[in-house]
Design a protein that fits this description.
The protein is an all-alpha fold. The chain has three helices and no strands. The chain starts with a helix and ends with a helix.
Length: 71
């Protein structure tokens, strides 16, 4: 009798956790889409983030190379 009750409780817990995980997955997908749309609508935002990293020197060199190619 106790085993049946435990199995029922375990089954209910598994269903609740499964539903909770599905909601989290959907929320996460919504967040990822919102972030991608935000970056797509403001492309300068993505570039500004890269300037703070190690790519800053590379960007400067590329600009110099392009400038010197025009001269």
């Amino acid at each position: 009798m106790l085993e049946k009750d435990q199995k029922a409780v375990i089954g209910e817990m598994e269903q609740l956790l499964s539903g909770y995980l599905m909601e989290m997955k959907e929320d996460n997908e919504t967040l990822v889409k919102a972030i991608k749309n935000s970056v797509a609508m403001n492309p300068e935002h993505g570039q500004k983030g890269q300037e703070h990293g190690s790519n800053k020197g590379r960007k400067t060199r590329k600009k110099r190379t392009r400038h010197s190619a025009r001269v």
